[in-house]
Amino acid sequence: MLLQGKSHKDDRGILTFNNEFDASGITRIYTIENHSPTFIRGWQGHKIEQRWFACMNGSFEILVIKVDDFMKPSRDLTIQKYCLTDEVLTYLHIPAGCITAIKSEYLGSKLLILTDHRLGEVNDEYRYDLNYFNEINCKIKS
Fold this sequence. Notes:
mainly beta, 142 residues
């Protein structure tokens, strides 16, 4: 789910904001910068933890899959495709039960990640080979 951000420009500069985002459940914040625009970070995700992504610099393509079975996911699940840019402060909510693949569009792009669990609070990280979900078998929705 996208929480659409906005921006305001005047003679002082540019303000990006998101007045719809409720950060009351956030317990951890970190950033990601991929070492190359050709690198794809994924597939990985969480059964319990939920996350919110916002682009701080550049832009990102983020693929999201709702997993049916974390021990042996189906290989033909639907892939949702999202694009985030630094032009507005849009948050992409990744609910519990989802995995992601993250690709920066430009060198130096920076992604802000907010989570609802502290580091080590739950043992909840699942990783899959990038080629596990063959795009030929998956349905991609933008």
